[in-house]
Amino acid sequence: MAVSVSAPILSLCFHQNGEQSNLFGYRQQKRLSSGRNSRSSIGFGAEKVRKSRVRVPICRAVPPLLFKDLDADDFRHPLDKQNTLLLRAIPGLNEFGKALLGSMTEQIMLLENIGTSVLVSKNQLSDLHGLLVEAAEILNIEAPDLYVRQSPVPNAYTLAISGKKPFIVVHTSLIELLTRQELQAVLAHELGHLKCDHGVWLTFANILTLGAYTVPAFGQMIARTLEEQILRWLRSAELTCDRAALLVAQDPKVVVSVLMKLAGGCPSMADQLNVDAFLEQARSYDKASSSPLGWYIRNAQTSQLSHPLPVLRAREVDEWSRSLEYRSLLKRANRISTLENV
Fold it and tell me: Is it the case that residue 282 has pLDDT exceeding 60?
């Protein structure tokens, strides 16, 4: 079993008045003339769905590129490769993780997510289903199940349980925060975890370092010993999956916009955010942390995080989008001539 909690990844679909479009049959609550939001900021349940539902395609200038022969190592971040090798070198780590988790933990996590979410399909939130199917096709991977879960915390995560079909869970507040293309980039990020077979290590990162603290003596010792190394791997794995998001979005500003919104965005101000300004902010962070003192503070700031800082992730995406490696992948790809109707 594997769990990925990702906080995580255009031509944006907005109405002329700047209001974000109704993406999946749910309507965002409009601001009152006083500037205050109405009671529910998520918009599920309380809001009425429009009687006539218009499906709006993703706003792409040209059809997306399809990577038929894409291999995980084609886009895996060098730090991901390095830290994965270091984890694999730890004797007995895989066996210890399986023994610690057991089938009961797997079943609890599976039922917890399935029992409290809505399963997306062709007949349920079909637009969202279409975004997932297209992203999986672009990355040359089988589409997992997808669930939408009610939560005020913008988040998405992946579970891959032994012997069962993996699935992605997306929180409702994340759907409200992002545009269609940005949401597809998030789905692509989660697909990146599956494409790169991050499952085993995500199990350790999200359960071992948390659950082992409840085990007396030995568990605490193991968790404290592995925590720093596992978190270092997690941060590098997130960089890899941001690349997967870029391969699907095929526009670095889409992925950077996701990171910017997760850092400090909200639906009411989404149309005022500036991707170029956020990238400049990332460069300012690099300059500020380039001194010996800045380097020390930066390491202290990030060493206990499961994800790299949003500005650093944005800079990595921007740099990779201009690399020979990325351009080479684009040259190998084929353009999708017609999109499947979903």
Answer: yes
What pLDDT shows up at residue 146? 96
Tokens of residue 108, six digits: 């609890």
**Residues involved in catalysis:** 190
Q: Which residue has the higher pLDDT, 301 or 329?
A: 329
pTM of the prediction? Answer: 0.77
